[in-house]
Amino acid sequence: MTLSRRQVRLRREYLYRRSLEGKEREVYEKKRRIREALAAGKAVPTELVREEAELRQQMAFDDARAMGPRAALDDEYARTLRGERLAKICISTSRSPSSRLKQFSKELKHLFPNSTNVNRGNTKVSDLVDAARRADFSDLVVAHETRGQPDGLVVCHLPLGPTTYFTLSNCVLRHDVVAPNYSVDSPPHLIFHDFNQDDKPLARRIVTVLKCLFPTAKADAKRVVTFYNRDDTISFRHHTYVKRGKDLDLTELGPRFEMTPYQIKLGTLDLAPEASDTEWVLRPYLNSAARVL
Question: Where is each Brix domain found (predicted)?
C-alpha cells in the first residue's frame, strides 16, 4: 500500500523545511567565521571574500537572541517533547515469530504504559505502518530475531519518520530474571548515562528517539529505566526501587539487553531504501572517530 496524497505532501513539506534548516546552519557558520576573523584582526577567509559584504550586512541586523541557528529540526518529536502528543506505542514482530520473540514483545509492552501489542501474522510492513498511522500511534516498534533469539529492534516514529535501527545482544527475558509482579500504570523515570549530548548531535538524536517512547513520569513513580552507554553499546535495564532511609533497594524487573544503533532513516519503515534519505549509518571500518555516541 502506497502513502496517501496527504502523507506524501506532509513528507515533502517536512523535507523542504529540513533543507532550509541546513542552509541556515551553513549561513550561520559563515557568519561565525567572519565574526571570529574580525575579532582577531585577521583577514576574512578567502572562500568568503565574495560573500563578505552581504553577510556583514545581515550580521548588522541580527538580533542577539538569534545569533545561533535554530535548534535541530525535530518536528517529528516536537509535539511529544512539549507534551502536546502523548506517547502511544504499537509493538509488533517480524513474520512467523517464535514463542521466545512473542514473549519478548509482550515484555516490551509492559515497559510502556500506553502501548498495544499487535500480532503481525502475514501483514505486510506497508499495511502495518498504515494501520498504526490511522490509529494515531506515535511510534511503531518492531522486534526481530535470529533462530529464536531477539537480535533487532526497529523504532519508527509516525506519521513521517524517522526510523531508527538497533541490533540487540545478550537478551535476557523477564522469565529468566524471575522478576516480581509490577504495575505499568505509571511511566518510569528515565536515566541516560554517558551520552555525549553536548558534543555529538547523534547522541542527542538517539536520546530523543528513546525518550519519546515514554510518557513523562510522575514524581512518585517507583520504576526506573536506564540506558547506559559504554563504547557505543547501550545497556538497557529496568528496575523498581524502594527507599529505606538514605538507601535504595533495587529490584530488577527485566528484560535486559544490549542495544547498538546502526542506522537512522528519515522516512518510515514502509518506504523503499531509495525513497528515504539516510540521516546516519554506522560504518565501523570507515569511521575515523573512536566513539560515535
Answer: 87-270
